Structures are given as structure tokens and as C-alpha cells.
């Protein structure tokens, strides 16, 4: 009897490969007229994992099949984030910290970190009662799942190309990584559509032309809130390059560069206080007749917007990929940032 496939069976390639194959198969099916499952089989043969991710596909294609097929999708989604750590500072941070499953969760309230002596454990003598502490939710991280959507368009010629899997993977990774960076490392308070930026509620420290002075300010602000032991530095590219070229081999704080930060911006983040959550459902929608506002930064309704392209007229296919994500901090003040650094 065949054994059911479980997440541990994903050994032939990174799990993210199969998620990108599922997206590519959804795209290819529009060209060939075959179902996404049959399109996947035509491109990759007996690929059981991609077949499972696409199983029970109707419209839209979804990886939300209950049971262990959904678990496979969850593994693949987290691996997609891990695979873009070289492109995205936010993905790098997510990969280092606590990750939660957000399936079926409308609100995740994670207890705050114990940071003072009053919250510490205590030594107990033999035969004596041990103290019991209540988990503190006064400084809890509130996670609400938000939809991260990546819309891309491919010409029919590109969709028919043998390298469509690599093209889809690259565009998904780049767009996802940039979207994570732009929101996570911002002072945007968040709303019903997106999580709050890590700088929300923090006061920007004024940067100078002295690197050691600026770093001292940042770590002092972090230490004032009981943080700093597991800190990482996230910096705009010019400052990240300067830091890496200056610090010696005994420097033990990791430096992460972000192209999503404005030049002169440097932040310190306590990794032990950061957590993120992802749903195990990815949805793929394709259309060859849609009209699309081809705008990456400020998309709007079609009325009066430019440029607008008709997928039917230009013989192209639009692919929409949707993921659910959230993040937060378990302690106030555990992300500090400065702007205006000139070193």
C-alpha cells in the first residue's frame, strides 16, 4: 500500500520549488487548456509533490486542501520566504525568529517577554512551594493575518517557454521580498490591509556623520527597554556597506542590508522579541482577458488610470498570487531606528 506523502518527504528540492511550480502550472494551463495538474505532469512528469499541492484544484487554484496536503503547502510557503533572504532583509529577519501558523486564526495574541527581575523564575528549596506566574498579555504581540498579493503578467510566448518555472520563481521572489521590506521597515501604523511597520510608535533618532555615535544611540535606546542581547542591525545599503567595511572580525552583531530603506536609515531589532505568522494557503488566479493597471507602486482602479493593458489585446496572461502573513513584537521598544546618517 502506498504511504501518504508528508512534509518530510520533500527532499528532492527546496519546498519553495514546488510552490513556484504550482504557480507556473496554473499559468501554463491557460495556454494549453489543460488543468493545472495535467500541465504540471506535462512539464515535470511524475512530480508527486506539485501534484498534491494542485490536487482538487478548481478555480482559483489553491493549496488549501485539508490534511497533509495543506501541511505540504505550509512548508513550501515558509521555504519561499527563507529562499529570498539574499533579496529581502525582512525575509532574513523572519527566518531568524519565531514563526507561527495562522491557519484559521483571526487574531493571535502572543504573551509579552519577561524582561525584569520581577518576572524572572525563582530558586526553590526542597519541599517548598514553587512560585507560579501568570503570562503577561499587557505587552503582547497582536497578529492579524493580512493578504500579501503579487500580480505579474507574462506574454503567451513567455508562458509557453520551457523556462517558465524559473521566470515565475524569480518574479515571485523579487516582488514578495520587496513588499515585505517596504512594509516591515516603515513607520506605517498598519490598517485592515497590512501589518504595522516595526518603526510605528518609535521616535526616529537623528543620525550624524559619526558611525560609533549613531550605533551607541541605537543600542542605548534598545537597552533602555531591556533589549540588545539578540539584536541585529538593519541598514540602508550605503550604511550597511560602510558598517561591513569598518567593523573588525570580532564584531558579533549581524548586519542586514535592505534596499527598501531610505539612505541614511539604520535600525536595531531584538530578534528574540520578533515573531511572524503565515497561512498555509496560497491562491493562484490567472486571466487572459483582464484589463490590468500596470503600476507597481500606486495601483488604482482602471478609471482614468495609466498605463492600462488588456491581456486579450496584447496576448498575455495575468497571474495573481495571494499569501497570508502577519508579524509583531513581544516587547515595546525592541526596534529602534535613526535617519539622516551620513557615514
Features:
343 residues; alpha+beta; five-stranded mixed sheet; 22% strand
**Mean of all residue-level pLDDT scores:** 80
Distance between the termini: 65 Å
Share in helix: 25-40%
Shape: globular
- Which segments are poorly predicted (pLDDT under 50) over 5 or more consecutive residues? 1-10, 56-69
Along the chain, the helix and strand elements come as HHHEHHEEEEHHEHEHEEEEEEEE
Characterization of this structure:
By secondary structure, this protein is α+β, with helices and mostly antiparallel strands. The chain is 31% helix and 22% strand. The chain is built from 9 helices and 15 strands. The chain has helices spanning 15-32, 36-44, 48-53, 68-82, 89-96, 156-160, 164-184, 211-223, 237-246, and strands spanning 61-62, 98-101, 108-110, 141-143, 146-155, 205-206, 231-236, 255-258, 266-270, 274-278, 283-287, 291-293, 308-310, 316-329, 335-339. Strands 1, 2, 5, 10, 11 and 14 form a 6-stranded mixed beta sheet that branches. A 5-stranded mixed beta sheet has the order 6-15-9-7-8, sandwiched between helices. β7, α9 (237-246) and β8 form a beta-alpha-beta unit. α1 crosses α4 (68-82). It is globular and about 70 Å long. Mean pLDDT is 80; it is low at 1-10 and 56-69.
Amino acid at each position: 500500500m502506498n504511504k501518504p506523502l508528508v512534509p518530510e518527504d520533500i527532499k528532492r528540492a527546496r519546498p519553495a520549488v514546488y510552490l513556484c511550480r504550482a504557480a507556473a502550472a496554473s499559468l501554463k494551463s491557460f495556454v494549453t487548456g489543460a488543468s493545472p495538474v495535467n500541465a504540471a505532469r506535462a512539464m515535470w512528469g511524475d512530480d508527486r509533490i506539485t501534484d498534491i499541492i494542485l490536487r482538487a484544484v478548481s478555480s482559483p487554484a489553491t493549496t488549501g486542501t485539508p490534511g497533509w496536503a495543506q501541511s505540504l503547502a505550509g512548508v513550501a510557503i515558509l521555504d519561499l520566504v527563507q529562499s529570498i533572504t539574499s533579496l529581502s532583509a525582512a525575509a532574513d529577519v523572519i527566518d531568524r525568529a519565531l514563526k507561527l501558523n495562522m491557519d484559521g486564526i483571526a487574531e493571535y495574541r502572543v504573551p509579552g517577554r519577561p524582561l525584569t527581575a520581577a518576572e524572572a523564575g525563582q530558586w526553590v528549596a526542597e519541599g517548598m512551594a514553587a512560585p507560579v506566574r501568570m503570562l503577561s498579555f499587557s505587552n503582547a504581540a497582536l497578529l492579524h493575518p493580512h493578504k500579501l498579493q503579487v500580480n505579474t503578467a507574462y506574454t503567451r510566448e513567455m508562458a509557453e517557454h520551457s523556462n517558465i518555472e524559473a521566470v515565475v520563481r524569480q518574479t515571485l521572489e523579487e516582488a514578495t521580498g520587496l513588499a515585505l521590506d517596504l512594509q516591515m521597515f516603515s513607520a506605517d501604523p498598519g490598517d485592515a490591509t497590512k501589518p504595522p511597520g516595526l518603526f510605528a510608535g518609535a521616535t526616529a533618532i537623528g543620525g550624524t556623520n559619526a558611525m560609533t555615535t549613531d550605533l551607541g544611540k541605537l543600542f542605548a535606546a534598545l537597552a533602555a527597554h531591556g533589549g540588545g542581547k539578540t539584536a541585529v542591525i538593519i541598514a540602508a545599503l550605503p550604511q550597511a556597506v560602510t558598517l561591513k567595511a569598518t567593523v573588525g572580525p570580532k564584531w558579533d552583531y549581524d548586519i542586514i542590508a535592505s534596499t527598501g530603506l531610505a539612505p541614511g536609515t539604520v535600525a536595531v531589532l531584538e530578534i528574540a522579541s520578533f515573531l511572524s505568522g503565515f497561512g498555509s494557503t496560497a491562491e493562484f488566479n490567472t486571466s487572459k482577458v483582464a484589463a490590468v493597471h500596470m503600476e507597481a507602486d500606486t495601483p488604482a482602479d482602471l478609471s482614468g488610470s495609466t498605463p492600462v493593458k488588456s491581456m486579450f489585446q496584447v496576448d498575455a496572461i495575468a497571474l495573481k498570487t495571494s499569501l497570508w502573513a502577519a508579524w509583531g513584537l513581544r516587547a515595546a521598544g525592541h526596534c529602534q531606528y535613526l535617519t539622516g546618517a551620513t557615514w
